[in-house]
Write a structure and sequence with these properties.
Structural class: mainly beta
Number of strands: 11
Strand content: over 45%
Radius of gyration: 14 Å
Largest sheet: 7 strands, mixed
Order of helices and strands: EEEEEEEEEEE
């Protein structure tokens, strides 16, 4: 059983920064694809960022809307994945969810690729 617990959300002014954390349980964390999605009011849950290690190579994927502002990283020793969010905008307001795929499906962007989800953490950006 995989358990994901997010933290770090909050209220921030436009242009500010937040760092989200997602603590994961599981012995093979280093081999998982980890991702962040977000759900804004009136919208569907959308992909934000993903990170995968495979054969000593590191892979990243970002939504166009966050490229250059958000950075995903992980600490395998702590079984934790992070999302550093800089230059936040009001349109980044959403509930942010951590997701895990214990086996890579070939797509980072699809919600169906991830079997495990956290409970979400609210990020609110004021203008």
């Amino acid at each position: 059983q995989v358990l994901l617990v997010e933290s770090g959300g909050g209220l921030v002014q436009a242009g500010g920064s937040l760092r989200l954390s997602c603590a994961a349980s599981g012995r093979t964390f280093s081999s998982w694809t980890m991702a962040w999605f977000r759900l804004a009011p009136g919208k569907e849950r959308e992909f934000v960022a993903a990170h995968r290690w495979s054969d000593a190579s590191t892979y990243y994927a970002y939504a166009d809307s966050v490229k250059g502002r958000f950075t995903i990283s992980r600490d395998n020793a702590k079984t934790t994945v992070y999302l550093q969010m800089n230059n936040l905008r009001p349109e980044d307001t959403a509930v942010y969810y951590c997701a895990a795929a214990t086996r890579y499906s070939g797509s980072y962007y699809s919600r169906a690729s991830y079997s495990y989800w956290g409970q979400g953490t609210q990020v609110t950006v004021s203008s």
